[in-house]
Amino acid sequence: MPRLFGKKNKSSENIADSVQQNQNAADPPHPDDTSTGNEANGGSKVTRSSVEPPQPAQPPRPKLVFHCQQAHGSPTGIISGFTNVKELYQKIADCYDLDVSEILFCTLNTHKVDMTRLLGGQIGLEDFIFAHVKGQPKEVDVTKSEDALGLTITDNGAGYAFIKRIKEGSIMDNVPLIAVGDHIEKINGESLVGCRHFEVAKKLKEIPKGTTFTLRTVEPMKSGFSNIGPSSGKKGSSSLGTGKQTLRLRSSGPATVEIPDDVVNVATDKINNLLESFMGINDTELSQTIWEIGSKVDNPSDFAIKVDESDLQVFGFTDDFVFDLWGAISDAKSGRLNKAAEFNEQF
């Protein structure tokens, strides 16, 4: 542990006074001499030096502690000391003596495979973490009879893409065994472990229409009581903030404790919906990045310029889509999205 306070040093004036008292009066020191003391008579040379004042001690950062369980059932574990999702998964794996590759994703405050409760870029300081681990692998043959398969894909931020939503009446809705929460492990034998959700979506989109392909998924392990539990609340309630402090996880840099802004929560939720409709992906961090860019400008023209100058240019957003994003941001700034969310929550 670094020393915050060292031994107190004498000032240069005190050193000079002490040495001069021992000097011969007939041999005063030269004012420009860097040494003090009678070197000619065997005295030691004392060099003047500037002494840095001791720095005040920094208050220790609070240690944030979270409770965790495996979603299919386990003792409660204590998790702390992480700054991003990968470190969180490793802490959970260490707690339960698992390989970190066994963890598919985490939900907050529910053991169910509830995609509205996915752990994303932030965790409330009072949230309970449930880790969903690998269960039964499944392999099915799918014929792509239409252009779209009807899947919405997301990922856990640590290398696993999984199914977030299946469109009713779509190709995948009629495929037995495939379900929400399944990790998409392979397509035609090609491993997708380590791929982001948009990479998996791109591979599925590039499969020619009329082709039959083999899809291998891994479902999360479930307990025998997975369908029993209290109602998760009214639809849309998760987009309204809790007003409590949250731990925001970042891909680079340390995690920070912030007070959530309901406007930000509603705006990023709307941006996420736009991303899903435009690209078929869901990315909390990408939505947060788009919001942060838009929150610093005052008009759609400046917003479009900032998007083109940022890393977002690789996504090839169309002008119309950028304008839609700005609409969500400006509505959130003016409070219109927040009011709409409150209305939906009441009715």
TrEMBL record:
Give residue spans, biased composition: Low complexity. Answer: 229-244
Q: What's the superkingdom here? A: Eukaryota
Which stretches are tagged as biased composition: Pro residues? 53-62
Q: Which Pfam families match?
A: GIPC1_GH1 (PF25083), GIPC1_GH2 (PF25082), PDZ (PF00595)
Q: Which InterPro entries match?
A: GH2_GIPC, GIPC1-3_GH1, GIPC1/2/3, PDZ, PDZ_sf
Residue numbers spanned by region Disordered: 1-63, 224-247
The PDZ domain is annotated at 139-219
User: Biased composition, Polar residues: where in the chain?
Assistant: 12-25, 34-52
Task: State the name under which the record lists this protein.
Answer: PDZ domain-containing protein GIPC1
Q: Which organism is it from?
A: Aplysia californica (California sea hare)
Taxonomy of the source species: Eukaryota, Metazoa, Spiralia, Lophotrochozoa, Mollusca
